[in-house]
Fold:
Amino acid sequence: MPRYNNPRKTWRYSTDFKVKAVELSCQEGIQVQQVAAGLDIHPMMLSRWRKEYREGKIKPDGRKRVGVMKEKKAPSGEELKELDKLKRENTRLQKENDLLKKWQRYLSDRHQSDLDSSRNTDED
Structure:
């Protein structure tokens, strides 16, 4: 039997990483293999983490909120009105900002041309 001088590298993952991986794999429509491939881990490792999570051996950190994404509810009429108002205000502010930028460029160009013309008169 061959002798190994250098043992293989054993990767250690944080509990937070394991919890996020498990919760990603528990989302509807997502397979364990997809999550494992995305995180570059073996699917059996993720399956083991899922089992440990169910058994309570892996627990999420109580200070952080880690949850499965929930369905979005349709916005109410009042929220739609507020959203529309904010969009209009955003458009108005963008136009105002563009106008101020154009005015600043105009003043800068005018100032530069004044400097250029004063240099030309000084050289003469």
Summary: Residues 77-123 form the longest helix (47 residues). Residues 77-124 form one domain. Helices lie at 15-25, 32-39, 43-55, 77-123. The CA atoms of residues 11 and 41 lie 10 Å apart.
